[in-house]
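Ops channel
N.P.: pipeline sanity check, posting one input/output pair.
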């Protein structure tokens, strides 16, 4: 009969050195517990570890407001076409300043396409020192077309809102950054002026600051809302046939009144009918209003016109 092994009351470390596999069996449970704790911690923080902690390098253009100065508009004189074939140093210096404020954020201070906003753009902004890969070409006409019309599918937007002379000034500065094709008067007259009519002059509208315009629009909208509430209360207390017709066929009476005083008050009856037929619900009416007799719709129209006048 085999003798049973004695249960050791203490660990015999000398025997562990001879048989180290026994040491692993003793610490295995601890490795398992540590691995389990790490796994639970990782799963609980899975969302947090996926966050990108590297700060972005591109500009958030939604938070950038380019203010406009107050300016009285008028007729701007015709463009001097000789500034295209024979640019002055003053024009080039003006173009350099305009480039810094308008173009450098994408194209870089030195025109190498490495501006602070370039990282977020695909394709990358144009390197004006390179003669390769131009979408529209490198002639003066091509450059003007790019600035005026933009390049679809890229970050190059149209800059038609700046004056022709400022566009020409920017282009003349850009042309100093590399070896560009010579500008001929035939190109200027037969292509550039024929397409963009630079020699005819342009009408410049009045400008007011963006914040001021927002404030004006907000005030106007507030007045319209207050007026629509006053008129709505008046209609609710009116029991004539036309008022009752209006109330019976309105989903939102205040919305009807607001839309009338802001969108429909200048419309004649035929235009009113067309807008009503196309989408009565968006104007605040019930869809069934289009099934009313013409005389009833006309009563509603005349009533709105009278009560809003």
């Amino acid at each position: 009969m085999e003798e049973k092994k004695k249960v050791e009351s203490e660990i015999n470390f000398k025997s562990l050195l001879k048989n180290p596999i026994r040491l692993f069996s003793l610490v295995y449970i601890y490795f398992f517990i540590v691995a389990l704790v790490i796994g639970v911690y990782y799963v609980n923080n899975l969302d947090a570890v996926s966050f990108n902690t590297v700060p972005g390098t591109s500009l958030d253009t939604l938070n950038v407001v380019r203010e406009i100065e107050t300016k009285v508009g008028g007729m701007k004189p015709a463009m001097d076409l000789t500034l295209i074939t024979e640019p002055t140093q003053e024009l080039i210096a003006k173009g350099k300043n305009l480039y810094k404020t308008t173009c450098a954020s994408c194209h870089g201070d030195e025109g190498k396409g490495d501006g602070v906003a370039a990282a977020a753009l695909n394709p990358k902004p144009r390197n004006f020192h390179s003669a390769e890969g131009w979408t529209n070409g490198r002639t003066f006409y091509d450059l003007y077309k790019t600035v005026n019309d933009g390049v679809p599918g890229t970050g190059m937007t149209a800059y038609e809102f700046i004056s022709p002379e400022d566009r020409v000034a920017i282009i003349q500065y850009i042309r100093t950054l590399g070896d560009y094709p010579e500008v001929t008067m035939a190109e200027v007259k037969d292509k550039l002026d024929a397409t963009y009519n630079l020699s005819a002059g342009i009408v410049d509208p009045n400008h007011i600051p963006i914040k001021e315009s927002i404030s004006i629009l907000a005030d106007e909208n507030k007045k319209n809302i207050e007026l629509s509430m006053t008129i709505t209360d008046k209609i609710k207390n009116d029991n004539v046939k036309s008022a009752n017709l209006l109330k019976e066929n309105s989903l939102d009476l205040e919305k009807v009144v607001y839309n009338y005083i802001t969108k429909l008050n200048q419309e004649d009856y035929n235009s009113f009918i067309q807008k009503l037929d196309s989408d009565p619900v968006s104007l605040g009416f019930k869809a069934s209003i289009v099934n009313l007799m013409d005389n009833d719709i006309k009563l509603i129209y005349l009533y709105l016109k009278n009560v809003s006048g």
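N.P.: looks fine end to end. The domain at 74-204 is CATH 1.10.760.10 (Cytochrome Bc1 Complex; Chain D, domain 2).
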